[in-house]
Amino acid sequence: KKMKVLCIIPARGGSKGIPKKNIIDVNGKPLIAYSIEPAIEAQKLGIIDKVIVSTDSEEIANISLKYGAEIPFLRPSEISGDKAKSVEFIMHALEYYKKQGINYDTVLLLQPTSPLRTLNDLLASLNLYKEAENDSLISAYEEEYINDLVIYRMAEDGKTSIPVNHLHNKGVRRQEHGSLYVRNGCIYISSAELIGKGYVIGETPLMYIMEKNKSVNVDTMEDLELLRKLL
Q: Nearest-CA neighbor of 73 among 101, 94, 45?
């Protein structure tokens, strides 16, 4: 499929767990730089057409510019709050370009809080999406331990467990039960058409498999420490 790819890196100024999370220093670089840099490399290779940061913060905007991203607009406050859905700022960006007569058919969404994807991950996932007939792609890792054989809910008495899978005590080995994959937030690719319907992920998205240790998602100070160690 022919692709005109808009890469959007969303970065709100406010952040609950870690103040100024998106631009916090991680081993000598602001967190967001780890998402901008590989995207710019892919742009230089002609795989991505434009790399923008969608933010409501001047400070984030200025830092993002230094690393080569474009800041075509500051995001309006009504789509920047805690309750704003990601699809809203994507629609906003696509609409912004449409008004200028520029139509993107594909959106690559890179969350700054999942910084361990590489240029190679971007190229491989975009290629997988390009080759397949599908409206979306997610990145995921294979979960070796957790699956429904080891998952329980708490009963109403607050003491008793309710097994999610009735085979939980039948001696079934997890390996026989098949793998589960966990969406890791590193890469989302969506068709503009799907975004127009109000979704970032379609019903049966393609899956780009990444290593679990590249799937760190920075939400807490603990995550941040782990990221610094991994890097």
A: 94
